[in-house]
Fold these 2 entries.
Entry 1:
Amino acid sequence: MKKVYIINFHHVLNYGAVIQGYALCKFLVKNGYDAKIIDYRPFYFLSQTYRPAKGIMKTIKKIIMNLNFYKFRKNHIKLSEKVLYTEKDLIKYFKDSEDAFICGSDQVWNAKLTNGKMDPGYFLDFVPKTAKKISYAASIGHARFDRQNQEVILEKLKSYSSISVREDFAKEEIQEISDHKLTPKVVLDPTLILDDYSEILDFSLVPDEDYIVIYTTEDSDAFRKYIQLVKDVLKMKVINLGHYKAGKDTVDYVNIHPSKWLGLFSKATYVCTNSFHGTAFSIVFKRNFSVLGRETKKDLNTRQLTLLSNLGIEDRFIHELNDFDHTYHLEEINYSNIEDRFNELISDSRNFLLDALK
């Protein structure tokens, strides 16, 4: 059985990052590969993950969250046998490998997330020439490549046998720095190509009544007003799965086990989000939803817009709060109308990945 090693942001306190790692690994295992995620824990991520929060109660909550994420990784993610902390560790561990290596998904090429500079580990610099390099749905988020390091980045990318990215923006960046000599393929995030999440779904927190799920990645008054507008019309219980306050009379689950988080997402009557993975999971579980654009770091909105536009439902994206129309944005999504296109995108993405590994 051919071995495949994946490197991504698996050891962070982020639901989307951890579950997409699970999804990619699980998909490859289901297709006959001995797939594992490299247990790479650079010190800058360890500092973010384990340093105390501001205040005793927040620190306790963070400890609980770390324990929940630890349990999820232990029970559901196949990791390399050894924990690796530096590029030197990676080079030494894989120096004689003839296996295949995948970087992605998530924002592995966003220097703002990797300690303010390119992390060679996430560019697969450690992989020997005897092995195969592939990127799957790699993202740079909203940050352009550093033009001062353009040639260095280009040389790294030239060593890949296959390159795919998650957003049009990343494709355009690579085309620009390579003078269109490299043309990456835009593929779906791993969360969208896995067809069965039953192994990790936990419904123990799902209420008997209809409910709205809230998942925001920024602290925004506009988002809270948006929630209130939805709540006033739907008149349902509101469950907040994000880290920011979502307004009055909400049930907050902000440090729970990823399986419980996903279980709540999967049964929601309506989802209000501004997150890429919030959007992705709404589509995976065929939930009714809308996406309010971010007020800060607006370039991050391109991630959701790429996905929604490719499915022909870009009208679920609300650019500004004034654009919200409850008679329209709360209308049920007819998933049968996008099923053919969605299946086509899934098949295309799966085929890219499996062909790249052959």
Entry 2:
Amino acid sequence: MSRQIQFRRGTADEHKNFTGADGEITVDTTNKTLRVHDGVTAGGIMLARADAAFKVWISPEFQPTSATRTIATHNLGLNPLHSWGDVLLKCVSDDAGYSVGEYCSNWTPSGQNGNLAFPISHGVTLTENTIETTTGTSTIAALKKDGSNEYAFLNLACWRYVFRIFY
């Protein structure tokens, strides 16, 4: 008679609070995939399915405001260790050589001291249910669209943030 091997299993929600032993394999019955555990990471590491592709969540548009955090709630309940996000600028009124509807991904929050700009760390903070970024103390600096490798200070009223999460 043949032998049957059965792994521990549970839903995605049950996996959130489960830290398996180092090297343990469990079955995620919600996502129809396996998870490999390291004895430390809650939920383990989900293995990709052969038929799976990344899903992308796209936020509504947000008006950037000087020296302000912009927070979007996505309520995906995702594990930030298994996902990544970014934020694009969408032009809503011509500025720095960009036309309405164009996107700029090469930008940085910026402080301004007279005519001198100093970049501030650009990025997003991704949590289980939110994603956020911060506008510089003064404005945003972006590469001009003309290919000159020069930065321009943007008029914040001409731009909107659009967050993306890949999970």
